[in-house]
Task: structure prediction
Amino acid sequence: MMTPSFYKIWMSPALKEVWFLSEPRTADGQIIDPRRFSKGVRYNGPSPVKVRVKYPGPAIDFHFGALDMLVVSGRIARIIAAIAPADVQRFPVLLDDRHCGYEILNITQLIPCVDESRSEFTKWVEADNRPDLIGPYRSMPKLRLLPAACTGHAIFRVYGWEVAPIASQQLKDALEEARCTGIAFVPVT
Result:
């Protein structure tokens, strides 16, 4: 049996300019902490309806907004939701009154799957003078996953290193076939 392949989803290094998308806002203008959409858990709060384009750039399908919040075109959100309907929440948002059809995509699966024997990482330690952070990963220059722990999941975040959204081979193939702009895939298995 072949080992399944998984990929870290990242911004395309070919992009010379990209939007910087700030935090989401509710209909009445209240800011929602963008980390609530990037921790691998369901969001149950007021609906985001707008995301400000803080620094302009070309319109592309895939963006990391503030604090690793995913903002994607509706087309890409539909592809992901069709493959992994139970693993994402979708929140349609308007980008600065000019760009409609975008969504905040909240990945709701958080999987403990880091292969520490093949990854390169540092963890927070007492000498870092952050007692509130001792133990978790501080940096992860080389992420490798345990494929068996990820099997059956098309999209998820990595427990302990939530900054890394992960896609299965099936999802990667579907997004590449759709010619999704702004996205790159880095093998992690």
Q: What stands out?
A: The helical segments are 74-83, 147-150, 169-177.
